[in-house]
Each structure stands twice: as structure tokens, then as C-alpha cells.
Automatic annotation (TrEMBL):
Organism: Thermogymnomonas acidicola
Similarity annotation: Belongs to the CbiD family.
Superkingdom, taxonomy of origin: Archaea
Protein name (Swiss-Prot/TrEMBL): Cobalt-precorrin-5B C(1)-methyltransferase
HAMAP family: CbiD (MF_00787)
EC number: 2.1.1.195
MF terms (GO), sorted A to Z: methyltransferase activity
Methyltransferase keyword on record: yes
Keyword check for S-adenosyl-L-methionine: yes
Pathways involved: Cofactor biosynthesis; adenosylcobalamin biosynthesis; cob(II)yrinate a,c-diamide from sirohydrochlorin (anaerobic route): step 6/10
Reactions the enzyme catalyzes: Co-precorrin-5B + S-adenosyl-L-methionine = Co-precorrin-6A + S-adenosyl-L-homocysteine
């Protein structure tokens, strides 16, 4: 469910796609003040172009200023720059330049050694460029002035991206999911859900929301996206006396819930690896494996170790049941609580209903 009062922003992927389209048009002699680009959710958005420059060697550059809406973002107001030049190989080639990080971890969707431009934003850039030049034959370089400094304020170095920011976004639209003002939006969504259902489905992110809608068989209005503010949703759910609450998410957020961190923002705490390591040890993982988990930079790496030991389903189930216990302790007024853990690819890893699955 979406709150109509929320102020939405644009992902870095959308900004990069818009800058790339404007630069490609300039490469052909057309100057524009704004461009319209497609997004993965079927919407086309109009994006203002901040600046245009014709460069030597038959190249052209365009910039778009990042707008994050109500969502606090270290990149808000930063320029996302695209440089376009002719490329004889055909198609659209996309790479990162200064200010865009390099992937160093095998757990991310981009292979190590490549620019940190995720697959969905990469496709968005390609589609936007082909709208401007249907025949292709363009090389695009994405730059973020000051990106290396900004990245130090993010989790990038800890998750396996070095030297700059990541170009991200699965929907093209950035929802206000982490700031204090969003708490009011969440409360309104919970109230609206209660009008049509006595079951509330809480999803920290967009991917989980999509999975919930496709697999749980509940009304779409009963599914809400909370971002970091799971606590706000559960506070309101207890007040509204829902008979059932379902929590569905990926390991990164849910491992924090298992540790009792119901506001999962990184500034408030991070016990992801400690939680997974403790559960893995309880499931029988050897000491060397536990130490390896504690040294991991992200939960995908940690669960790869758990999976390699044949313990993924058991540990995932333990994590879900731990969350259910935490929720029942903190929110005794909520009825039944079910927890589902899924992978970034969408497959079910475990649930609170499972004792031990093999």
C-alpha cells in the first residue's frame, strides 16, 4: 500500500538514465531541459536536466540533480553525470567513472571488479539511451562528483563496494521509508489496512512487498512497506488489534529484528552478523565457520557459509521463530505472528512455522 501524502523521489538509477538520455540527445545536436524515461514499474517520469556540455572527441555530457523526496539520503542534491560518446561496437555500453564505486564482494549482483551499477539501473540506462538513439552505438560513462567522499558515509565499504557510490534502484522511484516523518505515513497505511483486513503484512522493502502480494493470498491493501520503521507499524498494529501480523523480508533487515532492533536504521545499531553467527553456532556450525560469519560484510556472505554447511533452512527457521518471540514479547496485544525469510532472489529460506526443515 502507498501513502498518497508521501513525497517520492528518484533513485540514482533513474537519475543516471535521465542524464544518459539527455547526453545522447546532445550527442546528436539536440538540447533539452528535461527528459522522460521509463521505469521498471511501468511509469514514465519526467526529469529536469541540470546541465549540458559538448566535450572534445565527439562526446557530450549531461547532469541531473538527485532528488530523494521525503527520504533522507546522503546523495540528495548531488549531481549524477552521464558522458555519451559514439561507439562502433553497436548497442549501448555502460560503465562507471569517477565517483562510482567498484564491486569487491561476490555476494552482490554485480561481479567483483565491475562498476557498482546494479542490473536494473543498467537496463534503465540502456532503454533510455535507445529511446534517444534507436540504433544504438553509444558508450555511456556515469560519474558522480564527490561520490568517493559521500560513499564513506554509507555502508558501501562494509558491503563490498570501494571508492564511490552505487547506482541502485529496483523500481526507479524512491519511497520515503526511513525518516521520522514517514512514521505518520506508516500509521495511516496501517489504519487503512485495518479497514479492509484483520491481517497486516509488514515488509521492510519493495522486493518483499512484491513477493507478499504474489504469494500470501491477502488483500493488496493489507501489505505495507515500512523501510526501517518496523516498530512504527507494529505499534499501530497493536493499537488497532489486528488478529494476525505477517512479517516478510530478507536477511539484512530480519536479522536485526531477531536481535530486538525494531528500527533497523544502521545508525541505531547493527547486530546482523552476531545474530546469524549465534544461531548458526546453536545449529551446530563449527567454530571456524562462526568466526567466518563474524568477519562477513553482508548477510548474503554469512548465509553462503551457513548454506555450505547444510544449515540454511534450520538457521533461517530459528531466525524467524526468534523474531516471532521478540514481537510477542514487545507487542502482546497483537494476535498471531508469522515470519517469513526470503532470499534476494525471492526463494523462501525459512519461516516461523518450521521447526527444522531438511
Amino acid at each position: 500500500m502507498r501513502d498518497p501524502l508521501a513525497k517520492f523521489g528518484l533513485t540514482t538509477g533513474t537519475c543516471a538514465a535521465a542524464a544518459s538520455k539527455a547526453a545522447t540527445l546532445l550527442l546528436q545536436g539536440t538540447r533539452v531541459e528535461r527528459v522522460v524515461v521509463p521505469t521498471p514499474i511501468g511509469l514514465r517520469v519526467e526529469v529536469p536536466v541540470n546541465g549540458l556540455s559538448v566535450l572534445p572527441s565527439c562526446s557530450a555530457a549531461a547532469s541531473v540533480r538527485k532528488f530523494s523526496g521525503d527520504n533522507p539520503d546522503t546523495l540528495d542534491g548531488r549531481l549524477i553525470v552521464a558522458v555519451a560518446r559514439p561507439d562502433g561496437s553497436g548497442g549501448v555500453r555502460v560503465r562507471g567513472g569517477r565517483g562510482v564505486g567498484i564491486v569487491t564482494s561476490h555476494a552482490l549482483p554485480v561481479p567483483p571488479g565491475e562498476s557498482a551499477i546494479n542490473p536494473v539501473p543498467r537496463r534503465m540506462i540502456e532503454e533510455a539511451v535507445l529511446e534517444a538513439m534507436p540504433g544504438g552505438g553509444v558508450a555511456i560513462t556515469i560519474l558522480v562528483p564527490g561520490g568517493a567522499e559521500v560513499a564513506k558515509k554509507t555502508l558501501n565499504p562494509r558491503v563490498g563496494v570501494e571508492g564511490g557510490i552505487s547506482v541502485l534502484g529496483t523500481t526507479g522511484i524512491e519511497e520515503p521509508v526511513s525518516n521520522e516523518a514517514y512514521s505518520g505515513h506508516i500509521r495511516r497505511m496501517v489504519v487503512s489496512a485495518r479497514c479492509v483486513s484483520d491481517t497486516l503484512v509488514v515488509c521492510p522493502g519493495n522486493t518483499s512487498e512484491k513477493i507478499a502480494r504474489e504469494t500470501l493470498g491477502v488483500l493488496p491493501e493489507a501489505v505495507i512497506v515500512t523501510g526501517d520503521r518496523v516498530d512504527t507499524a507494529l505499534d499501530e498494529a497493536q493499537k488497532r488489534e489486528f488478529s494476525r501480523v505477517v512479517i516478510l523480508g530478507m536477511p539484512g533487515k530480519l536479522s536485526k529484528l531477531a536481535a530486538g532492533l525494531f528500527n533497523t536504521h544502521s545508525r541505531l545499531g547493527d547486530a546482523r552478523m552476531e545474530t546469524i553467527a549465534a544461531l548458526a553456532a546453536a545449529a551446530g556450525l563449527h567454530a571456524e565457520g562462526v568466526r567466518s560469519i563474524l568477519a562477513c560484510r553482508n548477510t548474503e556472505e554469512a548465509f553462503r557459509i551457513v548454506s555450505g554447511a547444510g544449515l540454511e533452512r534450520e538457521v533461517a527457521g530459528m531466525l524467524c521463530r526468534r523474531i516471532r518471540e521478540r514481537v510477542k514479547e514487545r507487542y502482546p496485544g497483537i494476535g498471531a505472528v508469522d515470519v517469513y525469510l526470503h532470499s534476494p532472489q525471492g526463494s523462501l529460506m525459512g519461516s516461523s512455522a518450521e521447526e527444522v526443515l531438511h
